[in-house]
Amino acid sequence: MWNTIKKSLNSPDSYVSLALGFAVVLVIGMITFNYFKARQQQAATTEQEQAQEEGKVALPSKHTVAKGETLWSISEKYYKSGYNWVDVQKANNLENANVVSEGTELTIPDVTPIVPAGTVSSAQTEKKEYTVKKGDSLWSIAVSQYQNGYRWPEIARANNLVNPNIIHAGNVLVLP
């Protein structure tokens, strides 16, 4: 048995076949590896894009102070509540919260938004939904939900409608 194996490996054709087989396995392995790596990167990018579209930012994060910004306005941007300015101040060891220079890079900590009793934060408000019925238009939906038909563009924007004239019965629209 060993002699037949040795004999078949001694021919030049066997070396070529062995090399080609190895090359095929290597190429298929690289293609498979690149495919799964690209899918993983695409999934991570999609999650980041979704968070940005929803106005959410993964915390902790960095923020560069723009002209006219205060800790309150920065806190509202990240937490939907200005009351978290204290957390931003503590995370950055700022002695005077009233003085924040343009261009300063701040760390935005991952903390729970502060909402005083009796107030409603935009982070707490739930989106209202409407199921389209036969014969509905954005105008009629705006009239029925807001008593103002001129608010139909808000509904179109909130639902990323490419053509606001085309909605179908059964569609579920988010009402801003």
Sum up the structure in keywords:
single chain, 176 residues, Membrane-bound Lytic Murein Transglycosylase D, Chain A, 3 domains, two-stranded antiparallel ribbon
Explain what you see.
The protein is mainly alpha-helical and 176 residues long. It has 3 domains: 2-53; 61-108, LysM domain (Membrane-bound Lytic Murein Transglycosylase D, Chain A), CATH 3.10.350.10; 128-175, LysM domain (Membrane-bound Lytic Murein Transglycosylase D, Chain A). 47% of the residues lie in helices and 9% in strands. It has 6 helices and 4 strands, in the order H-H-E-H-H-E-E-H-H-E. The protein has helices at residues 2-10, 12-53, 71-79, 85-91, 138-146, 152-158, and strands at residues 61-64, 105-108, 128-131, 172-175. Strands 1-2 form a two-stranded antiparallel ribbon. A two-stranded antiparallel sheet has the order 3-4. Helix 3 (71-79) crosses helix 4 (85-91). The protein is flat, with a radius of gyration of 30 Å. The termini are far apart. The mean pLDDT is 82.
Give the radius of gyration. 30 Å
Q: Can you list the strand order of the major beta sheet? A: 1-2
Spell the H/E element sequence: HHEHHEEHHE
Q: Any idea how many domains?
A: 3
Task: Describe, in short, the structure shown.
The protein has 176 residues and is mostly helical. The protein is 47% helix and 9% strand.
List the helices and strands and how they pair.
Layout: H1 2-10, H2 12-53, E1 61-64, H3 71-79, H4 85-91, E2 105-108, E3 128-131, H5 138-146, H6 152-158, E4 172-175
Antiparallel strand pairs: 1-2, 3-4
Helix pairs in contact: 3-4, 5-6
